[in-house]
């Protein structure tokens, strides 16, 4: 009886030892809150897509996170929010990307690995604009010509026409009118923010002067009608540009005379008002020097003058807003950049800001290309974005350049530099 009892006790002891050993060896996989690197999280995505990365863990809301790179098959990727619970990742290249996240909570530290497998997209992506979401130009010389607007057109019809102008490989010009007029468009993929490189370009009709009378000019100039650029990514993943916007901080933003939070209101002209004609230059004359009245939040007011240049429409007010008494725009106003270099009003040069705007430098110039890393939030603080899905461009200048009329930003498209294979270092 004693021998049987001892054998029974021996079996129980052995079983307990085996169970304990199994529990010890499998503890890290069953409890992701423990130390070590036994937990590996795997994510799959395609090129030119934003994905959220996270660890499998149960920690407090006060936990600290630190994401770092373990091994990547290409440097053509973006990883941001590296001190947050969820990091954001995007890549322009296929491959395997391995990261490590260290989580510290209440005096304990755990480390987990996160692997991202990036594959090719399932459909061919467009390097150019896929859709125009909004088109709201300010009054100007070309707003009823670029794109064409007819009497009786609705805002939706004009938006559809603007879309037909821009949403193609070789776009046609649209005009944003005077200060504040804007357009919002998007792409069929995310434009990735690659470190040290410029990421996209907004196409305009800027050009350099062939013969500037001022031989001592320090800046490049010609026709530079800077449009301020804003960017956004589809954080809520609904395909609409309704998430937070960030402004690209170009060189002009840092100039002393730049006015942030500028606001201007234009008032629809009375069709029965008596014009106030003025002089002109050559064949261009001012048909009404007091055509469209405006006032701003800086205590100033003035008029958009009407001229007969370029055979443009003599109606500067958007035809689809014929029943709207006024229209207001807000944004960053850049310093005036138009200079009468002739001294007699015949030759104006619009000097380009060094970088960071639309319709500021010719399309083949490196400084017409934009780095997403130049983005700032509404308080002026630098932000890190993994990629962008939407772009807004608005005219950042409130000035008239003699017989040239009001400065008006024109654009004719936008290009993803990474998808098109252009490699332009950032400033």
Number of helices: 3
Q: Assess the beta-strand content as a share of residues.
A: 35-45%
Output the strand order for the largest sheet.
Answer: 8-10-25-14-15-24
Average pLDDT: 91
**Unreliable stretches:** 1-36
- Label the overall shape: elongated
User: How do the SSEs run, as a string of H and E?
Assistant: HHEEEEEEEEHEEEEEEEEEEEEEEEEEE
Question: What is the makeup of the main sheet?
Answer: 6 strands, antiparallel
| Rg estimate, integer Å | 29 Å
Helix content: under 10%
Helix/strand-derived category reads mainly beta
- What gap, in angstroms, lies between the N and C termini? 89 Å
Number of strands: 26
Task: Describe the protein's architecture and organization.
This protein has 3 helices and 26 strands. The chain has 427 residues and is mainly beta. It has a 6-stranded antiparallel sheet. Strands 16, 17, 18, 19 and 20 form a 5-stranded antiparallel sheet that branches. It starts with a helix and ends in an 11-residue tail after the last strand. Mean pLDDT is 91; it is low at 1-36.
Write the layout of secondary structure elements.
Blueprint lengths: L1 H24 L1 H4 L9 E7 L4 E3 L10 E9 L4 E4 L6 E5 L3 E11 L2 E12 L11 E6 L18 H12 L7 E2 L6 E11 L7 E5 L2 E2 L12 E3 L3 E6 L13 E3 L10 E9 L12 E2 L2 E13 L4 E7 L18 E8 L4 E3 L7 E4 L17 E2 L4 E2 L10 E9 L14 E7 L11
Parallel strand pairs: 1-7
Antiparallel strand pairs: 2-5, 3-6, 4-5, 6-7, 8-10, 9-26, 10-25, 11-23, 11-26, 12-13, 13-22, 14-15, 14-25, 15-24, 16-18, 16-20, 17-18, 18-19, 21-22
Task: Please give a quick description of this structure.
The protein has three helices and 26 strands. The protein is mainly beta and 427 residues long.
